[in-house]
TrEMBL record:
It comes from the Eukaryota. GO terms for cellular component: plasma membrane. Residues 344-620 form the Protein kinase domain. The lineage of its organism: Eukaryota, Viridiplantae, Streptophyta, Embryophyta, Tracheophyta. This is Cysteine-rich receptor-kinase-like protein. Pfam families: PK_Tyr_Ser-Thr, Stress-antifung.
Length: 662
């Protein structure tokens, strides 16, 4: 017996064993598929128990969430044995409202079919969406079982050709889907099939999977196709972590996600008269096609040149041209901003940063704004202004402050932002009275929101952005205390595959700078991770990173946290106003903060790993190594002696974009 056959039988055997051991209820009703885990080692929950209440709260939050518009939901709620984890996944072509309706219906069906199981899965009709929950960690875990498959009973008109096209199509779609990001891993498309038919295909993974796990899951599905659907005009293989489907001459997904090519034209007639017409047609068509191809290539060439030029303009530290190529709707008239701020009246002043003053304003439409007017005599401000407009205008995330537009008239340079009603994080966390308002649930929400915002900058946005000036004063808080990362005047754009860059111009705020950047000008995504680690320790402790005085000695926060953690008294780090709230979660955040500030760049986690660590309490964290030494502003002369030509710090530790009322 061949090795592939042995693997196939082994896989079927494992699925049978799994089903027997879990004593699962798995069935199909009305084109829905569901799975209720009734294994002996998972006690069912009782009605109105803590687990039941947590489950209802979690599923209500998931199905009513309007902030997510990419079809993937992952949440957890509760503590210890009563913690519930959930995942909601919609097919990649569903619009947000359709997705939420599907998940809401799945919630109703699932809680009815599996009324008291601690783990259950529901697939809606045509796998438009999947909803699952469990009392164990399921985020980032590839699940092979339970699996189901089905096929269209009709046979293809050309079995061999059909099988070949199906395999090629699904294999190609798999290669595309695994390259997706943490929001979506989905691909759909088509290929010409037998007798001028079109074969449509779709593959999808839950986007929390790594590229390797997604690929493994889809490859396993593809290996099931010959056994379930060979020679059929349609079929599907579905697992919790991925699904795969094909249909012949039936477009089962919305083409907006992956528009299918038009069906191929039938071959020409071979009669003599047609041959003559064909010859004439070819004689006319070939020159036209050549001209069209030349025209297309020229368009592509000039478009690439324009894109490359624009990329270089963003990437350069020193700009050679004062022009900003930005969409016209983003540009404000200076008189409009002047009227909105009452001619920049002093009572509307919100704050002052290194390169300008921020004013509160109200447009004629009633919308509140924060307008940052750059200083006219600031040569640095021109560069930061261009950088911020070009970068922030392209970024859209709930944890990033939103740029509404800009003004460029004469020597006037103004950035117009959404108005954020609460002050910045530092005005709360370092204020003795206001700090008490930040109970742990709010602090944890702030930590997680900042992490998600940085992850978006590093991996999920169309551009890879290194912020380079993450600190408490650059984190703004909205009315619901949701964090928004601000001030992109010092940010840098990385290429898609770029991991590190060197600079002779050190910018940012000392104390938050990673040592490899402060000393050698080397920065990467791990530089932002270091700054985020300092932020975690400040949020947990309520202590500034500028130094803790003990008599004549000064100990900085990272070393203070490390020493207490190493000595087993990490509770000394915790802000006393937090009392005994969620002590385990607080200690875990201290642990994650210490992992982020390690001196070895490679040892620091990525922001993707940090988000997973924060979302899951069952993942074992590695032991942190000693953090990097603290870089103090009093070491300026030492840094200059290392040969850096320019050192730029946010003046007086204030941010360039501080959009908050005093």
């Amino acid at each position: 017996m061949s090795t592939p056959s042995l693997l196939c039988y082994l896989q079927i055997f494992l699925i049978i064993i799994f089903t027997y051991q879990t004593k699962a209820v798995y069935d199909e009703i009305n084109n829905y598929h569901y799975f209720c885990d009734q294994s002996n080692n998972k006690a069912n929950f009782t009605t109105n128990s803590t687990y039941h209440k947590n489950l209802n709260t979690l599923l209500t939050t998931l199905t009513s969430n309007t902030d997510i518009n990419y079809g993937f939901y992952n949440f957890s709620f509760g503590e210890n044995n009563n913690r519930v984890y959930s995942i909601g996944l919609c097919r990649g072509d569903l619009l947000p409202n359709d997705c939420r309706r599907c998940l809401s219906g799945s919630r109703t069906n699932l809680t009815s079919i599996c009324p008291n199981q601690r783990e259950a899965i529901f697939w809606s009709e045509d796998e438009r969406c999947m909803l699952r929950y469990s009392d164990r960690l399921i985020l980032g875990v590839m699940e092979d079982v339970p699996m189901f498959y089905s096929n269209n009973l009709n046979d293809s008109v050309d079995v061999n050709l059909s099988n070949e096209v199906v395999t090629s199509l699904l294999d190609n779609l798999t290669s595309r889907a695994v390259k997706g990001d943490s929001r979506t891993k989905y691909a759909a498309g088509s290929l010409p099939g037998p007798r001028y038919e079109v074969i449509y295909g779709l593959v999808q993974c839950t986007p929390d999977l790594s590229e390797n796990d997604c690929n493994s899951c889809l490859v396993e599905n593809l290996q099931q196709i010959p056994g379930c659907c060979k020679g059929k005009i349609g079929g599907r293989v579905v697992r919790p972590s991925c699904n795969m489907r094909f249909e012949t001459s039936y477009l089962f997904y919305e083409p907006r996600a992956s528009p299918p090519p038009p069906p191929p034209s039938p071959p020409p007639n071979t009669t003599g008269k047609s041959n003559k017409s064909t010859t004439i047609g070819i004689a006319v068509a070939v020159p036209v096609a050549i001209v069209a191809l030349v025209f297309i290539f020229l368009c592509i060439y000039f478009k690439k040149r324009k894109s490359k030029k624009k990329f270089e303009e963003v990437k350069e530290e020193e700009y050679q041209d004062d022009k900003i190529e930005i969409f016209e709707p983003l540009q404000f008239n200076f008189n409009t901003i002047s009227n909105a701020t009452n001619d920049f009246f002093v009572s509307n002043k919100l704050g002052e940063g290194g390169f300008g003053v921020v004013y509160k304003g109200r447009l004629s439409s009633g919308q509140e704004i924060a307008a940052k007017r750059l200083s006219r005599d600031s040569g640095q401000g021109d560069s930061e202004f261009k950088n911020e407009v070009l970068l922030v205008a392209k970024l859209q995330h709930r944890n990033l402050v939103r740029l509404l537009g800009f003004c460029l008239e004469g020597r006037e340079r103004v950035l117009v932002y959404e108005f954020v009603h609460n002050k910045s994080l530092d005005s709360f966390i370092f204020d003795q009275a206001k700090r008490a308002q930040l109970y742990w649930e709010i602090r944890y929400k702030i930590i997680l929101g900042i992490a998600r915002g940085i992850l978006y900058l590093h991996e999920d946005s169309r551009l890879r952005i290194i912020h380079r000036d993450l600190k408490a004063s650059n984190i703004l808080l909205d009315e619901e205390m949701n964090p928004k990362i601000a001030d992109f005047g010092m940010a840098r754009l990385f290429g898609e595959d770029q991991t590190q860059e060197n600079t002779n111009k050190i910018v940012g705020t000392y104390g938050y700078m990673a040592p490899e950047y402060a000393m050698h000008g080397q920065f990467s995504v791990k530089s932002d991770v270091f700054s985020f680690g300092i932020l975690i320790l400040e949020i947990v402790s309520g202590i500034k990173n500028s130094g803790i005085r003990d008599g004549e000695n000064i100990e900085y926060l990272s070393s203070f946290a490390w020493r207490n953690w190493k000595e087993g008294v990490a509770t000394n780090i915790i802000d006393p106003t937090l009392n005994n709230d969620s002590r385990n979660e607080i200690m875990r955040c201290i642990h994650i903060g210490l992992l982020c500030v390690q001196e070895n760049v490679a040892s620091r986690p990525t922001m993707a790993s940090v988000v997973v660590m924060l979302n899951s309490h069952s993942i074992t964290l590695p032991i942190p190594l000693e953090p990097a030494f603290h870089m103090d502003v009093r070491n300026f002369q030492d840094i200059k002696s290392w040969g850096h030509s320019s050192i730029q710090e946010s003046v007086n530790e204030t941010s360039i974009t501080e959009l908050y009322p005093r």
